[in-house]
Amino acid sequence: MAYVAIGPPEEDTGRAPDDAAPAAPPGPRDGRRGIALTALCLLVRPDSWRPSPDRRPLATAAELIPDGATVEADNTVAPRLTAPTGVVIADRTPRGADRVLLRVNDRTFPFASTDEQRERVALLLAHGYTEVFHQEGTVLLHRADPAAGVPGTHRPGPGSAPVREAVPDDVGANLLLRQGTSRRRRFTRATSTGHAVLTRAREHRRMTFLSRATRPAAVGSSVALAVAVAVALLAPTPPAYAASNAVPTYEVKINLTVAALDATHAPSAAVKSAFGITGSAKSRSYSYYDTDGLALDAQGWSVRLRHKSGSSFEETYKKRFPVTNGDIDAALTTANAAGFDSSDTNYDAEVDWGYAKQTLSFSNEKSHSASGYSGTAMPTSTTGRTWLVNDIPGKLEDWSSANWGKDTLQVSRAHGPVTAKVYGGAWGPSDDASIEVLPVVGANGTGTEYVVELSFKTSSYADASDLHADAIAVAEANGWLYHGDVLKTQLILDRY
What is the rounded distance in angstroms from the CA atom of residue 89 to the CA atom of residue 74? Predict the structure, then answer.
């Protein structure tokens, strides 16, 4: 489903869209009229709005709604959805739609509280709906079992009587004076040919900017106000530009079988020669932090604490986005809508390119002193968790709701540690080639298995594509290739 630049009316910037052509210089009279008219038009143009960070999850979720679906949508996004069979604003009455898109941590009209919004989601989940998206308090539900009845459901039809919504006193805001007296509105829900239609009726025919108390100089005040409003409309403002997608680097990761190792569980001489591995072994230990139920992983986050011999501890907070059918641009756009774009220099974008799977990730790297820790020694689970909680980046801290990430990390534990050996070198267009040999406990909790990962880093998509094809060909020809992707993070979370 398409959507039109989501953003609530109060966030209207009054600025031209990115692709607006510059206007010709206006004349003395026509220019002023033209600018004023343009400013007024932009106030009601949906494509002049840009989503604020807390509205971006609505845009991401909207893209997941298929064309032809009926939708009950949050008041902020409903007017901007296109191509569905029918869209209605989600209200206090279930409508039996195929999809329900609603925020649960920020009150939305016409609900009186976020508790009501959460209760609605809970009601639907208990009666045939499933959750397909949950990010920063935005939830998208799918009606997986249409036969399951939802208590209180009402579908308006022809001849239905309009229902007046009960509007809380603090709902509604003055368009031009953010701190001024609120416009009080009432909203009437009517029906037409079986579809709900939202109509808006003002209780007042004019906006109230000044106190309702009688003022002696009312005319003068009105003139002064009119001048102020005109100046505000005529004041030049720069155009609004949405941040572009991030530009990723690439890491090709191909798994090898134990046939690539010698008797000491190091890469064989033939393997080293084939892939340009010349460096000696360097050790590194690491743990991933998550709850027993893997709550962070369920939201696409991983938190790692790593210690390389002779270095400070590395704290890595990583958000993952799947790449479907090799469409990296689509994944970057999804990440952009979630707040990961080219303007955020705190995160490095990378595409991990495995045997058959690609994943886009954004990593925030921090460090912690290794004073008192020799070699690759790791802290206790509690100490490591304290470090990671204290350094948590803002995106993770408030990911699903305020303090969600911090609260989740505070009840996490270390999954690990594991200790790997890494052998470096250079191969083809990559001057950063390596083979990591990672011993892990067996799937049944006993014994040791070895994960062998061949990797190449590059900033070029074309080079990454060549490295991927060439590495697979060489490994296949020599009988070393593992035909699949071993996801180390998931393996460690599951086994430790």
Answer: 6
Alpha-carbon distance of 350 to 258, in angstroms, equals 28
* pTM, 2 dp: 0.55
DSSP for 232-269, please give it. HHHS--PPP-PPPPP--EEEEEEEE-GGGB-TTSSB-H
Q: What is the DSSP letter of 108?
A: -
One domain, residues 230 and 257: no
The confidence score (pLDDT) of residue 81 equals 75
Identify the helix (H) or strand (E) that includes residue 104. none
Choice among 170-179, 278-287, 305-314, 374-383 with the minimum mean pLDDT: 170-179
Angle at alpha carbon of residue 100, lines to 97 and 101, rounded to 5°: 150
Q: What are the φ and ψ backbone dihedral angles of 449, each rounded to 5 degrees? A: -115, 155
Is residue 244 included in any domain, yes or no? no
Domain that holds residue 381: 249-495
Residue 122 pLDDT > 70: yes
The Cβ of residue 256 has, within 10 Å, a number of other Cβ atoms equal to: 25
Q: Which residues contact 476 (CB under 8 A, 6 or more apart)?
A: none
240 within some domain:
no
Through-space distance between the first and last CA atoms of the chain, rounded to whole angstroms: 41
* Ranges 27-31, 66-70, 268-272: which has the least confidence: 27-31
Predicted local confidence at residue 463, as pLDDT: 97
